[in-house]
Fold this sequence. Notes:
Layout: E1 28-30, E2 49-51, E3 59-60, E4 73-75, E5 83-84, E6 97-99, E7 122-124, E8 147-150, E9 154-155, E10 168-174, E11 180-181, E12 191-197, H1 203-214, E13 217-221, H2 228-231, E14 243-252, H3 253-264, E15 270-279, E16 293-303, H4 310-318, E17 322-328, E18 346-348, E19 375-377, H5 386-392, E20 401-403, E21 426-428, E22 448-450, E23 471-473, E24 493-495, E25 517-519, E26 525-526, H6 529-544, E27 549-550, E28 559-561, H7 577-580, H8 582-607, H9 609-635, E29 641-646, H10 652-666, E30 671-672, H11 674-677, H12 684-693, E31 695-702, H13 710-726, E32 731-735, H14 749-757, E33 761-762, H15 767-781, H16 790-793
Amino acid sequence: MKPSCWWLVFVYVTCLHPSLILAIKRIIVNYSSQNLSSVPPGLKPSTEDLDLSLNHIQMLSGKDFSTTPRLHFLNLSWNILENIDMDAFNSTSALEILDLSHNRLQNLSDQPYLLKVGNLQFLDLSSNMFSVMALGKEFSTLKHLQWLGLSAISIGNEDFTYIANLTLKTLFINTDKLQKYEERSLTGVHAEKAVIALSNKDLDIAIADDVFASFKEVEFTKVDSEMKVLQQIRQRGTVRTVSLEISKVKTTWEVLTGCVNTILSSAIQQLSFSELTLTKMVNGRPVTSSRVLESFSIRRATVTEFIFNQTELYDFFISMPARKVILTQTPIIFMTCPQTVSKIEVLDFSDCALTENIFSVGPDTECSTLTNLKKLVLRGNNLKHLGPLTSRINLMSSLQYVDLSQNTLTYSEEQGKCVWPRKVARVDLSSNVFDQSIFKCLPDSIRILNLRNNRVTTVPADVGVLKDLNILDLMDNRLLDLPTCQAFPNLQKLLVRTNSIHSPLPGTLETCPHLKDLDLSRNPFICTCALREFAALINNRVTQTPGVTLGHWPEGYRCSYPESRSNTTLKDFYLPEISCNGWILAVTILIPTITLVVAVSLLCHRLDVPWYLKMMWKWTRAKHHAITSQKKAEDMEGLRFHAFVSYSQKNADWVKAQFLPKLEGDCGLRICHHERDFIPGKTIVQNILRCIEQSRRCVFVLSSHFVQSEWCHYELYFANHQRVMRGMDSILLILLEPLPLYLIPSKYYQLKAMMSRRTYLEWPQEGAKQKLFWANLRAALQANLPIPSEREEE
């Protein structure tokens, strides 16, 4: 039999229930839920992970796994297994994870197949049909076992004798069907942690007594609403447990607060609740103990009532005598300030619904009792304004680490001056919406700054000097150039991966004398002469400078433009000196050219070639003039402008300062400009159509802003339809800045097609080349248009 499909999935396996123990990534062969009655034959020898759960397999024979010597993971849970041949695992000596839970196995004393799995680390036999928990002698051979899951109807004192020599990491016992339990049955088991799924019966008390006396770490699941297993912990003689976790419990506020106070009076150091549901939010008891816990945490808590005293709830948690308080994945919208000086050193309110009013006491009063707090985590809340938030934490004098990531935080000077605690050394502001203004709201003592995944385009030159800053993470932002280290003189690690850096200036790195780690990968480098010097510099740093690390070099550094060098690594990028040095290029071209011109001139003079050329030129001009004159009468009718100019409003300065003065003032051309020539009262679309129809050509000023403008898209669309009537010469493209095709949105497919087929004018930055640019543009637009009548002008 073959599987209906091979699921190739990466699985991250941890030490959690039900079949998870090691941190590995593997490919699973999945036969789950295939209605199988036996193990499918013909399993490949390369099979390492096999899932046969949720089938109807009744027995395992000695040959079922004979072809899988590399089998590491086997899940047989939720079948109807009654019998396993003692030779079933003869060929699977590498097996480490075995899940046999939720089957019909009946005798824990007779599991001889375990003698063949000496490397087993995870074994789950819970939820079978075992009458007694008497483990057989074969269990003593599992020297590497770390996780063991069991369940039975009866548990006796001698049941765990054969695993007394083993030291487990986790013992899981499901007491759902337990009817009899002898006291002290668990005291002989050696495990770091016990996980007990309770049955809500009187037996839970006796089990809890033994668990507390035997294990350092304890987790109770399916706890009853009265939490009886915790009520008498003070009366217990010996309590070895230091870490207690309660999961999947629904209880009242009165019971919860009472149990917490009870546990505070015990020897337990770490207390946590998960999947907690609170009802009847009345009669809560305040914290009365002064003993300090190592940690107190609540994850995924909900309250079923809508109207209750929220201040009482917040006061209870913030007044907890613990060094670490964690309240996560819980929809709280506020947290009060402790009434007295708190001993809390770590506060984690991740994934809640808090705002920047957290800890607020009054309009002019801030929280002053969290003076021992060293770490504050507010990740994944509803924080929006950083300025007021710094005021909330200003008096936390011991604060060193602040995590405000995954919010929608912004900062502007209108929010006021930022006032940070003086010891803050690490700030995580990743995954917010900050721009470059954030550099005006940073603590002077900062050493590590994470600004990943924001909207920073540049590091301002006027930012204050942060002399202690060692690590700056600006990955996944919008940087256009490599930031200098003038404001960060001791910077050692700079991460600017995945930004918009095209051609970084080589002098930037010279401002960073202490820089040891730099990651510039995955930026859209434009491999032209401007990048040549920088590429050589970083190449030399990697190969010649000891102690300097360039992240993801060389595969992460590739050219994005021009097309001829697309995907070329900067390590292999090379331009000869002659391509970038104008003087060398001129000398190289002029000497052969002059020699050739002299030779051709002598030859032409001897053969009287100039006379023939002169005659042909006159004939050609005459023919061309005739054709042009023939078209003027009909083609120029109704045209008022030599050109209609379309551009993004962000390029308006160039159009008004360069384009219009040169063409209208110096060349005497008539240009249709929307700010001047659009008729008031008509819609924008009507004005665009009128201008295009009355213009001989349409000039489009292309830039990265152009392809983001909706109106520019409309103008290009209408002009493209109009050129069908006038021919290809009706559209003229001017490239104001480099615009790789991959930056053009898919809706501009017509523009992509035109740029790939047509020649366009590029605006040169050098003044000497601009004269030739204007000459070519004037020649392309020059035409004798009819003088418009007054009626047409109206």
